Backbone:
């Protein structure tokens, strides 16, 4: 049986670029995802919703390849935001590919049932919330790295972002009105996130629309599954697709050394190192009082080449099992 696979995704990209409506209609007609993976719930996406998800998948894949090309032409030491954008787009592409294939979902009885349909179920895409957990953490990391805040603040804020996504997942899988308790916790996590990101919170303004979409779809069963896909898809394109492009653009103007993001051979190094001939694995202690020797004196012990020089205080190699120390006394002592 023919399926809607990789060739159709390539056709979708070609149609989007060419603006050929007839080709797009042909792709819609060839979408057999729901025949290969039949619906699992009463309220399930249709072929129209699946085709929309395929279009978003193609857009994410195109953005991923574009930024990958830009990454190759960027200096290795300035690629940190490129890697975050690539991870963000790759995870989103995989998630949308899964949903477009009518996979990554589970049937859940809805709380609000129309016309007394006791067994009415709704398709819940758990893969969407897994994607949120990863991508929202990456977005939070990217924003906070621009502010040069401490790692403790970064870890705390990323934890809030994960809690925000997980609460939506648990609430979506809950069959009773208790789901709204998790919804309230998610809103609390969002409030704390907004406070932490107050100075860079503009990208988070759009994220306030996610609880609204959740309340109309997984929470309240008000809009159809296809409408849910369109709502979330538009939000994701702005908050992840366009965010990735904006991230790459802003990275061109950032001072990576001031932010502590300038990468050396042995990892993230504080600003100033690597510019005056010091190696990041050598630590030179200050010399004796009055000798003028020490880390900033320009003379010291080269632990990598085992050469001594006059004037320094004790010098040690970080990470070695044994410590080599040399001390030179003034003449006549």
Residues:
């Amino acid at each position: 049986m023919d399926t809607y696979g990789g060739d159709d995704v390539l056709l979708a990209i070609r149609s989007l670029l060419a603006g050929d409506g007839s080709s797009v209609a042909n792709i819609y007609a060839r979408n057999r995802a729901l025949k290969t993976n039949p619906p699992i719930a009463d309220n399930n996406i249709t072929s129209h919703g699946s085709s929309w998800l395929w279009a978003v998948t193609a857009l994410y894949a195109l953005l991923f390849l574009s930024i990958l090309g830009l990454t190759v032409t960027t200096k290795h030491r300035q690629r940190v935001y490129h890697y975050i954008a690539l991870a963000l787009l790759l995870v989103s592409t995989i998630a949308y590919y899964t949903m477009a294939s009518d996979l990554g979902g589970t049937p859940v009885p809805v709380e609000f049932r129309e016309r007394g349909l006791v067994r009415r179920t709704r398709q819940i895409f758990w893969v969407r919330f897994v994607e949120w957990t990863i991508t929202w953490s990456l977005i939070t990391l990217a924003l906070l790295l621009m502010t040069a805040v401490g790692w403790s603040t970064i870890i705390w804020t990323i934890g809030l972002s994960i809690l925000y996504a997980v609460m939506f997942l648990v609430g979506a899988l809950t069959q009773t009105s208790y789901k709204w308790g998790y919804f309230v916790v998610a809103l609390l996590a969002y409030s704390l996130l907004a406070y932490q990101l107050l100075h860079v919170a503009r990208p988070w303004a759009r994220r306030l629309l996610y609880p609204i979409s959740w309340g109309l779809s997984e929470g309240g069963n008000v809009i159809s599954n296809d409408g849910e896909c369109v709502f979330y898809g538009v939000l994701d394109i702005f908050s992840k697709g366009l965010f990735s492009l904006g991230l790459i653009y802003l990275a061109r103007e950032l001072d990576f050394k001031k932010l502590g993001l300038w990468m050396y051979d042995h990892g993230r190094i504080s600003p100033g190192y690597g510019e005056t001939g010091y190696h990041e694995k050598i630590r030179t202690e200050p010399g004796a009082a009055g000798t003028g020797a020490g880390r900033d004196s320009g003379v010291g012990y080269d632990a990598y080449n085992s050469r001594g020089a006059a004037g320094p205080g004790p010098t040690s190699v970080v990470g070695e099992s044994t410590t080599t120390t040399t001390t030179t006394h003034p003449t006549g002592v």
Summary: The mean pLDDT is 75. The radius of gyration is 27 Å. The CA atoms of residues 34 and 102 lie 6 Å apart.
